[in-house]
Amino acid sequence: MSTLGVESALLVSHDRLAALAAGILAASGMGDGDAATAANLIVEANLCGADAHGVFRLPDYSALLRKGLINPRPLVTSDIRGPAVALVDGDGGIGHLSALRAAELAGELALTAGVAWVGVRRSNHAGATAIYAEHIARKGLVGICASVAAANHMAPWGGAEPLLGTNPLAIAVPSAGQAPFVLDFATSVAAFGAVKTLAMAGQSLPGGWVLDRMTGETLTDPTKLSQGTLAPIAGHKGSGLALAIGLLAGVMSGAAFGRDIRPFDQPADAPANVGHMVIAVDPGRFMQRAQFEAEVARHLDSFAESTPTLGASAVRWPGARRAAICAKRSKGGIPLDRSVAKRLADLAHQLDCPIPFSL
Predict the structure, then answer these.
(1) Per-residue pLDDT band at 4 (split at 50, 70, 90)
(2) Is residue 214 in some structural domain?
(3) Number of neighbouring beta carbons within 10 Å of residue 139
(4) Are residues 38 and 66 in the same domain?
(5) Taking the CB of the first residue and of the last residue of the chain, which one, N or C, has fewer CB atoms within 10 A?
(6) Residue 89: beta bridge partners?
(7) Any bridge partners for residue 171, and if so which?
(8) Which family does it belong to (predicted)?
(9) Number of folded domains in the chain?
(10) Contact at 8 Å (CB) between 110 and 83?
(11) Poorest-confidence range of 77-81, 150-154, 310-314?
């Protein structure tokens, strides 16, 4: 979730921040329609608290677009391979466009076939994976999404060479009368965006986030980030899950994986060919959808009402905090760290885009 400081943050409305993002993407070469679509998805990450996947990424996206390493005007295509299977080709464009197309297509196929699997190839970083899983859940379906990271940040368990990405996984389940259950996590202890945010601010890295490649010891010095790899969640289990996602979302989709993906400490010099996988399931094939959603809500409420451990204020289910942050930021504005705001303002000035806030 959010890793950016809010004590001195600017508050910017969703609409203004989305307009800034769209302007930057359009000035970087994207068509107006695609820029607006991608901008809304980028800012949705901020709206829900996933700041490390939001506008913080715009300078990188802009640089890659202007270098031609992200296709600014992709022709995203869909190839339906069977009643419940399809393949989306992102044509090297920004990943948000192809991931959204896959989520929409998976939902359509699942309503007909009961279940659908859509693979994506030739994509790029698509922001917060939960956005696409939740998009499916809002249609009354179960959404499962996973991605292969655009760069390798993590070594396989017992190894020193970064051959795995953070490879996130998100699962969203609709629930009656409340926000959907949304489980969203990287297969590393911390997402690389969160690590990079702290490193850019010159802040020490929390212990256990990054491991020294040679010794395996925890690394906290942000200036030595290139000497480390991200630690997997739960040791060998997280490493194995990252590998499985790489095979299913990468290899099976015809996208890059393993040595075909650049290490995070090397500059991008070729298109990324990022892969995603999107699964949609219609719970109405097992019971009435309303009954299923009511049962989900009943169980989630029982967790929320259960006795917390000593020192904890409450028991939360995945998605509850996300929904609360979204509601708060929708009303009061999105907190934008001043260092991020300055980077965006400098970029907007460089690209001759209007800036909707003052530093």
Answers:
(1) very low
(2) no
(3) 17
(4) yes
(5) C
(6) 77, 121
(7) 144, 183
(8) Belongs to the LDH2/MDH2 oxidoreductase family.
(9) 2
(10) no
(11) 310-314
Whichever domain contains 184, its CATH number is 3.30.1370.60
Closest to 276 in 3D by CA, of 44, 73, 87, 76: 87
pLDDT at 8: 67
350 pLDDT above the threshold of 70: yes
State yes or no: pLDDT of 357 exceeds 90: no
Domain match, 179 and 65 both? no
**Binning pLDDT at 50, 70 and 90, where does residue 200 land?**
confident
User: Is-contact 203 128, C-beta < 8 A?
Assistant: no
What is the span of the domain harbouring residue 338? 1-73+323-359
Tokens representing 198?
A: 């702290």
Shared domain for 24 and 105, answered yes or no, is: no
| pLDDT at position 5 over 50 | no
Do 83 and 161 belong to one domain? Answer: yes
pLDDT one-digit tens code per residue, 98-127? 999 999 999 999 999 999 999 999 999 999
Type of residue numbered 308: P
Average pLDDT for residues 220-234, to the nearest whole number? 90
Proportion of the chain above pLDDT 90, given as a percent:
83
Q: What does pTM read for this prediction?
A: 0.93
Entry field: residues in the chain:
359
Q: Is the pLDDT of residue 18 over 70?
A: yes
Residue pair 71/93 in contact by the 8 Å Cβ criterion? yes
